[in-house]
């Protein structure tokens, strides 16, 4: 066949070549064909099935780790395709999450993106598991999700799967509210050269180039992305508009490759390097009397290797190992009155003179974090009725910082997970799964279970009943910060302090400080009833998914952690209830999609009443509702037009967070031209902010309600 | 009583002896005539069968053909060596290779080619009208396109991959599609290593990929990569044949073997009446093969096979049967 195909490319004697080619194709394929003529749907194994690779076809992978259709998945999953992101003119990764019902996307501090599902987030989101191709991608020791430094380019995204609802049964501790898996395009599908650029308002610039190749044995792709933005236009300080130093500039290199060893074994190797600067404004984010901007300089890299194997079409497994290193360098200069420094000195030490100027020195929050992770996963398809996935994982999180954790340290996690899917009848599927995990952050072990029953009607409708419990343990910083600053470059007359540790616990308000107290795990018990249905209309496809949920949260860790105040404890219980809708309608040339989410949240302080004054108790409760929106939704309309033109319109709203509402309408006009050897695309996007009031923080100011972006891309 | 009866016996015996000979002669004559007549008919109504070499396939076809042809026409299986010794046929060949062998062995033979594509046989049929015909095995592309539309009713744009040599395969389709509210674009694959880059561009254009029986692009070596790339992009692949559906293509129309055999029988009857074969043609009825597992994986609600076939037939009837069918 190989020979005939090669000849056919260059041959001019088409009939003969075709004859030969067809005859060989027939001889290879017709045994199935000869017996495939019966009316019974006799499933003779095809090329894919023979190799156990029906599983390579994308199904919902994230929820249970089994590849399942949405009818059989034990929970609600939103899938955002890379094409949808691009067609709607979405400019940054985090903004794509506005398409997920129940998600709130915003910015905190000096324009650091945050995305939460059902709130419960103060600023940093510690309760979502984020993965890129199965590799954990949230920050290692701070457990936060840093969307700015996410090492993935929009162009490389195949799709994003968001499992809404606790998913610790599959992914462990951080998948407390849900999990996000960013699945990148296989290098097998991106052979060729691609270049893209977009420029726009507020200094937006994104360039992407990728080159790759594929053959029967190996595929690879090397891509480079630069993303740059000036951030918001200005901030408010003392009622005055002042410049905001909150932009970023990031360079991201990724190598993705697949080596096929034989028909049943392959190795994926992925590596990446990311560097850049995340500007932090001294007025907004400066600490301890900062006089310079405490910009964060990022320097990250990762290596991810995965071995896939199959012993038969019904038994496959993978082993994956990854090594990630995230290094941030954040340094700034401070100036503090000598009297304040003297007040911090231990009794007995002579005070510094207070008439020779302020204390001036450099401080840093430099931090290097390393994550080493290894996982083995095994899937057995006993029959179409019974499937089992199980596995073990081990993770070592290391940190090294002069400021945090007082030097070096490690945390270890081990886990075992499994999920069984059992379908005794065509109309009924049960899923049962769980994750047992042991972590050194609390020196305890935990089990997060999930059970679900899906009633499937007509092969196109499913009614699901899901029960799950999940746990989140405090991250290393919450549990054991050992936080201090070590001044350098200390100006006279304070030289004696150069290199001395100034412990944060000595600066904290002692009346409320819980610094050093041990934290326990948080628990969520979640109940879901959801419906997923597809309607095959005469001229259209309609898909509807509705989710009702009722979640109880116990022992939630809330409070404030900064260098002035530190009061966190397992002190809040919450109850959340709501309904979410996701629907899409596709007919000729038109795609419509709408989402809506309604959330009710009620919290109460359950901590020691004597530990905090009433206002701080209320604040602890409020903080967990800080990014919880009662109503939110999106609407998208993508329309194909003649001559390769396409328009899209999208509307996003979130109502409301911290007395602010997000309302934006995006419009995009693009044209795609397919030439013989290449295709190119040009587009103009307008983002119109319907509500001029800054979103989430009064400092997030955008002067022009209309933001413009121009895009150009070419693919060979 | 006894005598009489004896006499009577004798008479009977006598009369029997006298009439037996001519009767026997008649019987012999009739038998000979009948045998002669039968002998005359038998060589006139036999058909040679040159198989593809794929034993299960050949046996399956032989069985179906015998069921349809016999006893009026007898089917004689011949090996490749015997092809050159045959008289003018007719010969039923299976697949393009068997056809080519039969054609090369005996250029004057009447050949009915089965399991051949229109693009393959039509040139031979035009050069030797009445002598060469075929029961077309490929499916008219407009039917395949409508099969895709029956599954994805919202689809309007079809992506097509072709080489410079196979681009003509799709030209009739491109002309026909606007009548059905669809359009298609051909993405030319310049060389082997441009297949996937071109496919990626094609998937960016179309609502689905329509595969024609073009072995330069769709063959057992490439199909897996094509299917997986398409499915990872959440795009379906229709065609090119039923066998590819088993391999993982979502759906394909196909001509059922009994339909093809019935058409072959019609062709042979017309040949025996007139000494000439009619032009190659497609069977009248098609069925649809679907891969339900792939549909489930891609979250595509799939109408029943009968529904899809009915929708396709209705569309074709409403818009009139098209030229290439």
From TrEMBL, chain A:
Signal peptide: none annotated. It is a multi-pass membrane protein. Belongs to the TonB-dependent receptor family. Residues 70-178 form the TonB-dependent receptor plug domain. Residues 300-646 form the TonB-dependent receptor-like beta-barrel domain. GO terms for cellular component: cell outer membrane. One of its GO terms (molecular function) is siderophore uptake transmembrane transporter activity. This is TonB-dependent receptor. It is found in: Cell outer membrane. Keywords: Cell outer membrane, Membrane, Receptor, TonB box, Transmembrane, Transmembrane beta strand, Transport. GO terms for biological process: siderophore transmembrane transport. It comes from the Bacteria. Its main location: membrane. Pfam families: Plug, TonB_dep_Rec_b-barrel. The keyword Endoplasmic reticulum does not apply. InterPro entries: Beta-barrel_TonB (IPR000531), Beta-barrel_TonB_sf (IPR036942), Plug_dom (IPR012910), Plug_dom_sf (IPR037066), TonB-dep_rcpt-like (IPR039426).
Automatic annotation (TrEMBL), chain B:
This is ABC transporter substrate-binding protein. Gene3D superfamilies: 3.40.50.2300.
């Amino acid at each position: 066949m190989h020979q005939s195909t090669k000849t056919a490319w260059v041959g001019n004697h088409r009939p003969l070549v075709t004859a030969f080619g067809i005859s060989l194709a027939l001889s290879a394929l017709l045994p199935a064909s000869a017996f495939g003529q019966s009316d019974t749907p006799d499933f003779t194994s095809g090329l894919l099935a023979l190799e156990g690779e029906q599983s390579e076809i994308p199904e919902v992978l994230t929820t249970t780790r089994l590849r399942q259709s949405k009818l059989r998945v034990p929970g609600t999953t939103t899938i955002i395709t890379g094409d949808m992101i691009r067609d709607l003119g979405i400019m940054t990764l985090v903004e794509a999450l506005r398409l997920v019902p129940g998600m709130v996307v915003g910015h905190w501090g000096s324009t650091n993106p945050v995305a939460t599902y059902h709130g419960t987030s103060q600023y940093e989101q510690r309760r979502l598991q984020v993965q890129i191709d199965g590799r954990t991608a949230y920050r290692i020791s701070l457990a936060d999700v840093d969307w700015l430094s996410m090492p993935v380019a929009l162009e490389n995204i195949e799709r994003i799967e968001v499992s809404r609802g606790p998913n610790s049964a599959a992914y462990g501790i951080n998948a407390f509210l849900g999990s996000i898996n960013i699945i990148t395009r296989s290098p097998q599908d991106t052979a060729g050269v691609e270049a893209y650029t977009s420029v726009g308002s507020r200094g937006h610039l994104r360039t992407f180039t990728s080159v790759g190749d594929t053959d029967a044995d190996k595929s690879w792709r090397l891509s480079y992305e630069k993303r740059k933005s000036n951030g918001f236009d200005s901030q408010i300080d003392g009622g005055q508009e002042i410049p905001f130093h909150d932009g970023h500039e990031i360079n991201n290199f990724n190598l993705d490759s697949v080596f096929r060893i034989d028909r049943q074994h392959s190795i994926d190797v992925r590596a990446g390097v990311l560097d850049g600067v995340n500007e932090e404004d001294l007025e907004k984010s400066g600490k301890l009397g900062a006089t310079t901007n405490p910009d964060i300089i990022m320097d990250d890299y990762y290596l991810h290797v995965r071995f896939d194997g199959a012993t038969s079409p019904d038994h496959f497994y993978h082993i994956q190992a990854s090594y990630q290193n995230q290094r941030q360098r954040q340094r700034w200069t401070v100036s503090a009155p000598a009297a304040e420094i003297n007040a911090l000195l231990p009794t007995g030490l002579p005070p510094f003179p207070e008439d020779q100027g302020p204390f001036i020195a450099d401080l840093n929050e430099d931090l290097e974090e390393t994550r080493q992770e290894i996982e083995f996963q095994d899937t057995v398809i006993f029959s179409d009725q019974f499937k089992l996935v199980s596995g073990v994982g081990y993770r070592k999180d290391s940190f090294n910082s002069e400021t945090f954790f007082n030097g070096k340290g490690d945390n270890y996690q081990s886990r075992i997970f499994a999920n069984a899917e059992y379908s005794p009848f065509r109309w009924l599927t049960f899923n049962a799964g769980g994750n047992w995990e042991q972590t050194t952050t609390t020196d305890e072990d935990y089990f997060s279970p999930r059970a679900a029953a899906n009633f499937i009607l007509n092969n196109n409708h499913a009614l699901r009943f899901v029960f799950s419990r999940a746990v989140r343990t405090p991250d290393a910083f919450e549990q054991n910060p050992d936080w201090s600053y070590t001044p350098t470059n200390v100006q006279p007359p304070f030289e004696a302090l150069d290199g001395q540790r100034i412990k944060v616990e000595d600066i904290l308000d002692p009346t409320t400080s819980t610094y050093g107290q041990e934290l326990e795990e948080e628990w969520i018990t979640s109940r879901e009833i959801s419906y997923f249905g597809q309607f095959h209309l005469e001229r259209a496809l309609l898909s509807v998914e509705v989710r009702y949920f009722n979640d109880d949260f116990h022992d939630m860790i809330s409070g404030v952690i900064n260098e002035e105040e530190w009061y966190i404890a397992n002190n809040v219980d919450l109850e959340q209830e709501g309904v979410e809708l996701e629907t899409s309608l596709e007919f000729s040339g038109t795609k419509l999609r709408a989402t809506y989410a309604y959330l009710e949240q009620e919290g109460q302080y359950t901590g020691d009443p004597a530990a905090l004054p009433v206002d701080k108790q209320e604040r602890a409760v409020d903080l967990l509702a800080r990014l919880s929106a009662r109503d939110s939704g999106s609407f998208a309309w993508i329309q194909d037009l003649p001559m390769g033109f396409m328009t899209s319109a999208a509307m996003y709203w979130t109502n409301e967070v911290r007395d602010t509402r997000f309302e934006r309408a995006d419009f995009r006009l693009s044209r795609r031209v397919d030439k013989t050897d290449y295709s190119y695309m040009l587009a103009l996007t307008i983002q119109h902010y319907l509500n001029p009031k800054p979103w989430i923080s009064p400092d997030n100011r955008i002067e022009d309600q209309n933001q413009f972006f121009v895009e150009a891309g070419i693919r060979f | 009583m006894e005598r009489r009866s004896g006499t009577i016996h004798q008479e009977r015996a006598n009369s029997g002896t006298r009439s037996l000979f001519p009767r026997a002669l008649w019987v012999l004559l009739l038998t000979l005539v009948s045998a002669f007549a039968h002998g005359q008919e038998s060589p006139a109504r036999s058909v040679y069968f040159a198989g593809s070499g794929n034993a299960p396939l050949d046996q399956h076809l032989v069985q179906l053909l015998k069921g349809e042809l016999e006893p009026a026409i007898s089917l004689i299986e011949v090996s490749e060596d015997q092809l050159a010794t045959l008289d003018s046929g007719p010969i039923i060949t299976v697949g393009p290779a068997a056809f080519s062998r039969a054609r090369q062995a005996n250029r004057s033979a009447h050949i009915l080619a089965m399991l051949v594509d229109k693009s393959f046989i039509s040139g031979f049929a035009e050069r030797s009208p009445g002598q060469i015909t075929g029961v077309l095995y490929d499916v008219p592309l407009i039917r395949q396109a409508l099969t895709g539309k029956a599954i994805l009713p919202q689809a309007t744009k079809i992506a097509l991959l072709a080489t410079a040599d196979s681009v003509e395969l799709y030209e009739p389709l491109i002309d026909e599609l606007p009548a059905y509210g669809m359009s298609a674009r051909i993405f030319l694959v310049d060389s082997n290593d441009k297949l996937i880059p071109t496919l990626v561009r094609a998937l960016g254009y179309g609502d689905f990929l329509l595969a024609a029986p073009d072995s330069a692009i769709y063959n057992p070596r490439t199909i897996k990569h094509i299917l997986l790339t398409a499915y990872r992009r959440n795009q379906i692949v229709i065609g090119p044949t039923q066998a590819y559906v088993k391999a993982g293509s979502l759906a394909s129309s196909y001509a059922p073997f009994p339909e093809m055999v019935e058409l072959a029988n019609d062709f042979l009857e017309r040949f025996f009446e007139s000494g000439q074969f009619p032009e190659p043609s497609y069977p009248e009825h098609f069925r649809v093969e679907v891969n339900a597992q792939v549909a489930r994986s891609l979250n595509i609600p799939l109408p029943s096979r009968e529904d899809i076939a009915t929708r396709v037939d209705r569309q074709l009837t409403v818009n009139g049967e098209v030229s290439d069918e």
